[in-house]
Design brief:
By secondary structure, the chain is mostly helical. The protein is built from ten helices and three strands, in the order H-H-H-H-H-E-E-E-H-H-H-H-H. The longest helix has 31 residues, at 24-54.
């Protein structure tokens, strides 16, 4: 049976726009190959699951849950990640583009530098592959830093404001094992305008780009 399929969202900037923080080579491979693979495998798992359900084969549908969770998480994470970045020359990458969020950050951690220190330590503390996110808590509206393994996604309640991919494919070709340099340089290309919009908006607003690419 036919099910809605997801497609690779176009980047909101050129592949070389984030240099020197993230190289053109990495961006091309990361977007065209890695992200596309998650989407391809997600669509396949969704189709197999839908077919199994239509045939009343719950056991076969359930067998796809792991693939849907992993590849769906990969698609969600990367889609949010791309929109959460901006060229360092853009006004969107300046903290001034997020007045309300920056005030909340300073109220929570005392200063922006302290926030960067805590967030960076959380990123470098990830064992293996994973992601680090700044989120707005669903109930309290407070800010919190979370780390998630592999392709787990911020899909339960909280609103993701921006995230950093700590899989090796996000940095290794450029930084080799220098994760700390990657973490330091990615601050230069965070899209604070997008983070501010996510902070001010609803959780559904943060995920709307996923619906636009079906």
């Amino acid at each position: 049976m036919s099910v809605a399929a997801y497609s690779l969202p176009p980047l909101p900037y050129a592949y070389d726009a984030l240099e020197p923080s993230i190289s053109k080579q990495i961006m091309e491979l990361h977007h065209q190959k890695h992200h596309q693979t998650y989407i391809t495998n997600l669509n396949k798992a969704l189709e197999v699951s839908a077919k199994a359900q239509s045939e009343g084969k719950l056991q076969d549908a359930a067998a796809q849950l792991s693939a849907i969770r992993f590849n769906g998480g990969g698609h969600i994470n990367h889609t949010l990640f791309w929109e959460g970045l901006a060229p360092s020359s853009s006004s969107d990458s300046k903290l001034d583009a997020a007045p309300e969020l920056s005030r909340a950050i300073k109220a929570t951690w005392g200063s922006f530098d302290k926030f960067k220190e805590v967030f960076g330590a959380a990123l470098l503390g990830i064992q293996g592959s994973g992601w680090g996110w700044l989120v707005k808590e669903a109930v309290t509206g407070q800010l919190r830093i979370v780390t998630l393994a592999n392709q787990e996604a911020v899909v339960v309640g909280d609103t993701p404001l921006f995230g950093v991919d700590m899989w090796e494919h996000a940095y290794y070709l450029q930084y080799l094992n220098g994760k700390a340099a990657y973490v330091e340089n990615i601050w230069k290309v965070i899209n604070w305008k997008t983070a501010e919009a996510r902070y001010a908006g609803t959780r559904d607003d943060a995920f709307k780009v996923l619906k636009a690419n079906m």
